[in-house]
Structures are given as structure tokens and as C-alpha cells.
Amino acid sequence: MTAVTVRVPAKVNVQLAVGGRRPDGFHDLANVFLAVGLHDLVTAEPADELLITAAGRDVASVPLDATNLAARAAIALAKLHGVEPRVRLHIDKDIPVAGGMAGGSADAAGALLACDTLWGLGTPHDELLSLCAELGSDVPFSFVGGAALGVGRGELLTPLAVGGTFHWVFAAAPGGLSTPAVYRECDRLRREEGAGDTVAEVPAPAADPALLAALREGAAVALGAALANDLQPAALSLRPELRDTLAAGTAAGALAALVSGSGPTCAFLAPDAAAATRIAAELGPAARVAASPAPGATVLP
Ligand code: C5P
């Protein structure tokens, strides 16, 4: 085999309920993931040693060393099978980097599937998902796509039914936000409010039944009313100008607006595809439209 290309989707969290900080530093979550039709492509080709290259959007901020999550995925898979990670990974980026849309996680999931296919390993699905979970909390979802409820630190997935197509607009913001910094700010704000930030002090996170019903029914208005992100106050505290972006999308006709994951990308739910195109045009050239749900990591023919 000469080259394998895998397509992987971005995600938006339609609900991100954040519980208390656990002793291991992670937070318990009820994380309702929806894969959206913005994609990275990860291509694996035989090489003498592990090599990473990248092209596309925001490519200057993609690390090209062993800290790249795609490189770590290739190394972890090779180690599991006792082989050397002799592969060139090329990442064609279209998902905003450090944007709260799981771009790095998508690349890890894509690299795992591309290397597994290139090397002819046939790793069982559940073993690939365990590797995904070791690589990062959002990587298992990037691998499976569709829609899912993630609990634990977000890695324990239950697939969710989606009864229609939802249309989104995404406004990427320059600079990116560090996920650990946003969680730290969430903890700080909770302590400042006197609520405390530990598992013992914060109510256990739970999925909202109204939101799950809206997904199941494909009901955009009801989904818009139920969108919720507990990390949003922290992202807005670190990047106050995002308030203006959220307001601009709502003024342009979005049903609802929220920060995507840990941000700084803002997500707008549109009533239909035509409205999404109109809202994106009003928000400017950095805005993108995408439909959901989208399939997970897929080997391209
Ligand atoms: O798992 P992942 O590497 O994506 O997590 C990045 C960082 O986000 C963690 O180091 C932690 O600071 C924060 N995080 C968290 N609770 C989660 C998931 C992520 O605190 N459930």
C-alpha cells in the first residue's frame, strides 16, 4: 500500500456540563458531542522514520514534532503492535487550530485509522477506542463521529440518535485558547462566586433531556433553546470580545449562539441551510458553514 487518506470531522458541543475538578485534575463532564462537516485530512505514507507535515488553514500554529497528537497516535499504535512508526503523516487542515472544535483530536483519530490501515494491522475497534482515550478526552468522539454523550472526562461514549440535519455557522477567532487555561478559569470563577470547584462541591453534570429530545427529533428551534456550555463564562472572561461575535451572529438571524467547547470559535445554529449562508456572509470571510451530524474518521477510496 502506498498511501492512505482519512477524513475526520470537527465537533461542536451542544451541551458541555462541567462538574467539579477531580483529584487527577480533569473534570467530570456530561458532554453532548455533535460532529460537523468541517474536516481535516490525514494521509499516511511509508517512510524511513516518523515525519509530520501540514498544509492548509492556520498551518503555522501546528506543531510538527512528537508533541503533535497525530504523531503521538502513530507512536502509540506502533508500540501496541511492537512495530516501528515508520510513517510520513501529512495533515491537511481545515479545522481551526486550538479553536474548541477538537482539531488536534481529529488529527489523532485520523492518524490512528490511517496508520492502522497502511500497516495492515486490523486493530479491533474497541482497542482503537482505548488508544483514542489515552491520547485525549475528545479523541474517541472524533473517531466515531455522529452524535454522542460523553461522560467521565468525556471519553466514555454513548451514541445518540439525531433525527435531522442541523445547519451551523462557525466564526473562528484568531489566536486560539488553551483548553487547560479555560478549565482553570472556570474553576477560578466558581471559587470566586463562593461555589467551590471540587467534585464534592459542584453538582454532578447531567445531560439535559430537552436537548437530547431536540437532537432526536431534528428540531432546530428546540435545540437552539437548549444549547449550553459551562465553559462559556470562562472563555468570555479570557476573551471578552467574543461577546460581540456572539451578539453579531444572533443579530444576523441565528437561533442561538454559543462558544464551541473551550473556544474561541463561536458556533451559531441556523434555522436552515440558506439562513446559515446568509449569517456567514454577515459575519465576514472568517465564518464557515457546516452541517451536522457528520460521520467519524473515514478512509477515503
Ligand atoms: O484530554 P485532553 O488532553 O484533551 O485535555 C486537555 C486538558 O483539558 C486537560 O489537561 C485538562 O486541563 C482539561 N480537561 C479537564 N477535564 C476534562 C477534559 C479536559 O480538565 N474532562
From TrEMBL:
Tell me which residues make up the GHMP kinase N-terminal domain. Answer: 68-146
User: Nucleotide-binding: present as a keyword of the record?
Assistant: yes
The protein's name is 4-diphosphocytidyl-2-C-methyl-D-erythritol kinase
Give the UniProt keywords, A-Z.
ATP-binding, Isoprene biosynthesis, Kinase, Nucleotide-binding, Transferase
Enumerate the GO terms in the molecular function aspect.
Answer: 4-(cytidine 5'-diphospho)-2-C-methyl-D-erythritol kinase activity
The protein's matches in InterPro entries, at most eight in alphabetical order, are given as: GHMP_kinase_C_dom (IPR013750), GHMP_kinase_C_sf (IPR036554), GHMP_kinase_N_dom (IPR006204), IspE (IPR004424), Ribosomal_Su5_D2-typ_SF (IPR020568), Ribsml_uS5_D2-typ_fold_subgr (IPR014721)
Family statement:
Belongs to the GHMP kinase family. IspE subfamily.
Report the function annotation for this chain.
Answer: Catalyzes the phosphorylation of the position 2 hydroxy group of 4-diphosphocytidyl-2C-methyl-D-erythritol.
User: By its UniProt entry, which HAMAP family does this protein fall under?
Assistant: IspE
| Gene that specifies this protein | ispE
Task: Tell me if Ribonucleoprotein is a UniProt keyword of this record.
Answer: no
Q: Where does ATP bind?
A: P96, V97, A98, G99, G100, M101, A102, G103, G104, S105, A106
Cite the GHMP kinase C-terminal domain residue spans from the record: 212-283
Quote the catalytic activity from the record.
Answer: 4-CDP-2-C-methyl-D-erythritol + ATP = 4-CDP-2-C-methyl-D-erythritol 2-phosphate + ADP + H(+)
Q: Which residues form the active site?
A: K11, D138
Copy the pathway line from the protein's UniProt record: Isoprenoid biosynthesis; isopentenyl diphosphate biosynthesis via DXP pathway; isopentenyl diphosphate from 1-deoxy-D-xylulose 5-phosphate: step 3/6
Q: What is its EC number?
A: 2.7.1.148
Gene3D superfamilies xref list: 3.30.230.10, GHMP kinase, C-terminal domain
Q: SUPFAM superfamilies this protein is in?
A: GHMP Kinase, C-terminal domain, Ribosomal protein S5 domain 2-like
